[in-house]
Amino acid sequence: MPDSASIHVMIVDDQTSIRAILRNSLAQLGIINVSERKNGKDALEHLSQNSVNLIISDFNMPEMNGLELLKAVRANPRTAKTAFIILTGEASKELVQEAVKAGVNNFLAKPYTVGKLKAAMEAVFGTIV
Amino acid sequence: MDELDAIKPIFFEECSEQLVELERALAVLESGEADQETVNSAFRAVHSIKGGAGSFGMTELVRFAHVFETALDLLRSNKIEPTQEVLNIFLRATDILSDLTAFEQGGEPVDEQRQQESIQSLEKLLQKPEVDNSEETEDEEDWGLPEGFVPVPVSADMFSDPVSDQTSVDGQDDSTDGFEIFDLDTPPQIKEDEEKEKKTEKKPKIEEKTPVISDGKKTAQGGRPASSSSNAQSIRVDVNRIDRLMDLVGELVIGQAALREVFSSSEKKHPHADASSNDLSNAMSSTEQLTRDLQDAIMAVRAQPMRAVFQRMQRVVREAAHLAGKKVHLEMEGEDTEVDRTLIEKLTDPLTHMLRNAVDHGVEKEQVRLEQGKSATGTIRLSAAHKSGRIVITLSDDGAGINRVRVRDIAVEKGIISADAQLSDSDIDNLIFAPGFSTATTVTDLSGRGVGMDVVKQAIQDLGGRISITSEAGKGSSFSLSLPLTLAVMDGMLVTVAGQLLILPVSCIVETMQISKENIFVSGNNSTVICVRGIFIPIVDVAKSLGMENRQGNSNQPVILIVEDDAGKMTALAVNRIEGQMQVVIKSIEKNYRSVRYVSAATILGSGRVALILDVPEIAASAEGRMLNMWTSENENESSLECAGKV
Fold first, then answer.
1. In angstroms, rounded to a whole number, what is the distance separating the alpha carbons of residues B608 and B622?
2. Is A34 a residue whose pLDDT tops 80?
3. CB distance from A21 to chain B under 8 Å?
4. Given the DSSP bridges, would you call strands B328-333 and B378-387 parallel, antiparallel or unpaired?
5. Do residues B331 and B268 both lie within one domain?
6. Which of B36, B90, B473, B550 could bond to B543 as cystine, CB 3.0-4.6 Å?
7. Distances (CA, A) of B120 to B50, B97, B593
8. Where in the sequence is the domain holding A58, given as residue range(s)?
9. Judged by CB atoms within 8 Å, which residues 88-107 of A form the interface with B?
10. pTM, to two decimals
């Protein structure tokens, strides 16, 4: 039962606007420890220096997509247990199955409401206080 | 939601970037040199627009982007081929997508019929492949989680310390490859995968011996992690602030000129300069250099590549060609040429109009082209480049060229010229810039929008630019636009003409020389030419042109400034003396006084005096007119003007 102040989130999305909206939604849930990266490659670089509890990542990004990022995160023992939610508007079955195989914790469909975001996070973390 | 409103502009800016990317990707596909990443980036562009639009509740945009994206997905998964027919559908859809985003920003509503047509053609593509997409499409439509998926919780205790809790020592099994090392309290579940997933259930815990980087931990624990660093590469700044900077640099230039002036006059009074006066001079030179660097730096902030305008032109040509029932291909070059952003904004309309004209009046119909042995598809070339401190944009087509007989007839009919006017080919070509001239016999949807080339010319002139045309019957026409890089400061040559100080832009001066009277030839109509290295160049007496009485006019050796226009045509301007070179701040004379013939602007000198800046192309053109008369009326003189032996 984590409290919102202890959650560190990394948002990974190539669109500045999507990141801004997500940051805004997280703030509404009281989560203010948020970092942003614009693709998988930058995200891994951030992870090499920092620790986060949760990665919310887009699927489709240039340089390194969400699935590749997920696999890389899981492959590194230091980050392997980090919660990973995929934020996507594109739910093709193959991709979803691959993500599940790679160990994704949850999905969040675009567009989402703050309520749905909370539910998606709580399904992973338990009730957030 | 206020916060969302604040994010909207960012979204729209991204949309326009995505649209440019989409256009680019489709253009590459058209060229047949596309790889998988090209298709991916096209898909990603539409997908991103859809995603953002969804967050803002722009349902119409989402709906269209969704259909578009689904169709692009077929291309991505190689279920359809990027044939021209398919690409045309995508190009149309891109236009609609662009219109829809424009509408969301408060633009005009989208033509419903065209939108419907586009949706229908996209949906037709979706039905083509044998694979049934209907199910998949529905899946995506409800935005729901994939069937059978159960979220995977993580242990809550990891929150006491996000890092150390991940370090659980067990040390039994070190085989860690790929995702299998992932320790899940509950394995991910998808019905068909259940069997396989069971195997992972008894996985040992991960052995973690990697020491935690201490400062990394600190960052994570800190109130706000290093999140802002992701935005560090660019910031958004109000344009007005940059404009203010540019203004200030202008004032700085004037201030420095004043300082220089004071310094020189005091030096004249005390000619035996000591070391400190030398130091002062050096210090001034270096601040002058720094000011120049500062100006360049601010201009670089304002500079943007032409790409943004150019990419939009693809669509203009596409639509114009479609309406005119012609096949036209637009080739572009120099999209990366950087120009001031105000220029970019103000160039869009004139270029749009010129391209429509080129399609409408320039390129012939397919059949006509074939009859003339040309390729069925007409080509329009649009290029941008930097040339001696200016940006030159050329737009040429391989069409019919200017129909001079018709242009002349129309000009006579409209009372622009008299029926017996003696005009050269170039004069006739330039008639299309005359106010009120429009050759379109019927007002089409394309060019007949109430504006003609005169409006284009005016728009270019307002930017301190010039436009010229060359045309060859049956081969096509070429327009050349030359624009200053900045509208604020330029390098000027200070000259004296009849006791007055005048400024000429250094960028258009090719050569300066003193010339003796033997090299000046007087020809008919009182026009004069000089011979420079075997080439005749018409002379313009600047004082006479400006209506000034030249008291020093008897000078045997006038100073000649040879200037060149964008077409490479040279003119010699005669002045009394060259005073020096300096940076000048351009002040509009039109705004502060009124428009004056042969004068493009004014500036303030270091002494506080106002000096006029000559409109060099205009004054040079006045010589051209006289030259023309000379060659036409005194043709027999031509042979007597042999100068090779005299130089």
1. 31
2. yes
3. yes
4. parallel
5. no
6. B550
7. 19, 14, 58
8. 4-125
9. 89-93, 96-97, 100-107
10. 0.53
